[in-house]
Fold this sequence. Notes:
The protein is mainly alpha-helical. It has 9 helices and 2 strands; from the N terminus they run ααααββααααα. Strands 1-2 form a two-stranded antiparallel sheet. Strand 1 and strand 2 form a beta hairpin. The two termini are 38 Å apart.
Amino acid sequence: MESLFGWITQPEAWLAFGTLLLLEVVLGIDNVIFISILAGKLPPEQQQRARTIGLLGAMFMRLGLLFSISWIYSLKNELFQVFGQGFSGRDLILIFGGLFLLYKAVKEMHEQLEGPVHGAGASAGAVVGANFAAIIGQIMLLDIVFSLDSVITAVGMADDIGVMVSAVVVTVAIMLVAARPIGDFVQAHPTVKMLALSFLLLIGVNLIADGFGFKIPKGYTYFAMGFAIAVELLNLRVRRGSPVQLHGSDRQPD
Length: 254
């Protein structure tokens, strides 16, 4: 325990902690958006529980990865080659995670615009239960991808495991506080929801490109996302009348 918090008395460690915390929060926004969109599909009384489970799951996953740094480094070892392109365990996780993110974003867009088709014979309780379990499973699956990116960033930014653990715990605490207002805002504004889904498409493409060895500078991605958010905020400010209603938008945030 003392080794985890021994950095508190070191001024240079606080600089590393602050920088890492800022980066972790920025990286965590992707996770919060994904969790908020998926949790918004649940009944109001289950949304907060799904957000909390998803974020706590992300925290424990990141802490587990941090205490397995040697395994994290081993993921960078090349496993095989295809047409001269080498692939490591990390590359495979990023590629399949990116593909899953693309699939989920496109599927969510389709359901919001076209509407899902439910079997008439299914009982309401069974559908709700299955949806909750499926959504938690999807959140945990993407937590693996987002956690891997977060932990690799942490390992590259700090040398002290205590600094990394503290930054992850504080980041998740911030996300737990921010998840509900972010989720409510996204659910209340359909155009923002579509924009958030387009961000997930962009992130998925970045993950796949990274897995294939093409490094897209994160600054470009975050600048594009920031510019789009600024434009949408201006649109929300000057927009008149009721917003368009998407399928499933009759569910009010809890």
